[in-house]
Design brief:
Layout: H1 3-9, E1 19-23, E2 29-33, H2 38-46, E3 51-55, E4 67-71, H3 74-84, E5 92-95, H4 101-110, E6 115-119, H5 122-135, E7 140-143, E8 156-161, H6 170-174, E9 176-185, E10 196-201, E11 207-213, H7 227-239, E12 248-253, E13 256-261
Parallel strand pairs: 5-6, 5-8, 6-7, 8-9
Antiparallel strand pairs: 1-2, 3-4, 9-10, 10-11, 11-12, 12-13
The protein binds S-adenosylmethionine (SAM).
Length: about 270
């Protein structure tokens, strides 16, 4: 079973809500209702692009600024799933259920019983639960703060976050078995292409790994960063000579995390904003 097989088997359109949001040239996102514009809605489903499914934490009705839930671009999801190396029977924790589409792809790869997915917004979690059940992938959708993981179903072989962090919650390390992998997209606080990192958990309860490739996710709700944080990180990265993504790595211990360049012995002054 390959990631490609999963994409062939699971239609994205089953997971997108009737109302999606489209970004306008002026920066505002406005609703696009499937009933009003079915062709545009289908085009959005079929494109290799992010589809915004909630703005401004659900507060906006006719226009909104911040995308707060979305279905990620399928090409990026595929790249992340390839890196995650899930096999039949792998036990996986996903943080950020969103539409449920990624959880369904994971369920296709490893079996629905092996997936736990956590979503902080109860309305979004309820929609995803329904879509997953209807599509035939009855995975466990937990409503709660994904920063806490979900200890009840631990240990996991894989943790995948589909919301970005600037600090990896240690709970994710604690709940992953030694040798397991954590894939986590980063906020704009290490590199301007917001790369994702792939960490391996070790016997001693630490996790370490490198940044892999560009991503671009909204952050976990409790880890939102300000424009000033981003500007500060950008300047520090530029002063360091604009090192490429793959030169960066991160080590997570119970005492905190270190972002480094080339080797754990060389911590960088950027990467942490708090
Ligand atoms: C990019 S979307 C996830 C895309 C999703 N995996 C999919 O396939 O559609 C990010 C999601 O993370 C959720 N989120 C944000 N902070 C969270 C947190 N602390 N715990 C759990 N979910 C969170 C948001 O509500 C949003 O639905």
């Amino acid at each position: 079973m390959t990631v490609r097989d999963a994409f062939d088997a699971v239609p994205r359109r089953l997971f997108l809500p009737e109302v999606i949001w489209v970004r306008q040239e002026d920066g505002w996102a406005v609703p696009l209702r499937r009933g009003d514009a079915p062709e545009q809605w289908e085009q959005a489903c079929a494109a290799d692009d992010t589809v915004i499914t909630q703005v401004d934490d659900g507060a906006a009705t006719d226009r909104g600024l911040w995308a707060t839930s979305s279905s990620s671009a399928p090409g990026l999801m595929a790249r992340m799933l390839e890196e995650l190396r899930v096999v039949r029977g792998s036990r996986v924790l996903e943080i950020g259920t969103g539409t449920g589409y990624n959880a369904a792809l994971l369920a296709h790869l490893t079996g629905a019983d092996n997936i736990t997915t956590v979503e902080i917004d109860d309305g979004i979690a309820a929609q995803a639960r329904q879509a997953l059940d209807q599509a035939g992938y009855p995975v466990e959708v937990v409503t709660g703060d994904g920063a806490l993981g979900h200890p009840k179903n631990a240990p996991y072989d894989r943790v995948i976050a589909t919301a970005a962090v600037h600090e990896v919650p240690y709970a994710w390390v604690e709940q992953t078995r030694p040798g397991g992998l954590i894939l986590v997209p980063w906020a704009l606080t290490v590199h301007p292409e917001a790369p994702f990192a792939l960490l391996e958990v070790r016997e001693d309860g630490t996790a370490e790994g490198r940044f892999v490739a560009a991503s671009g996710f909204m952050t976990l709700r409790a880890q939102r960063v300000s424009q000033e944080d981003i500007r500060h990180a950008d300047e520090a990265w530029a002063q360091a000579g604009r090192p490429e993504i793959a030169r960066h790595g991160v080590t997570v211990t119970p005492a905190g995390q270190t972002v480094w360049l080339d080797s754990p012995a060389n911590p960088v002054s950027y990467g942490l904003t708090r």
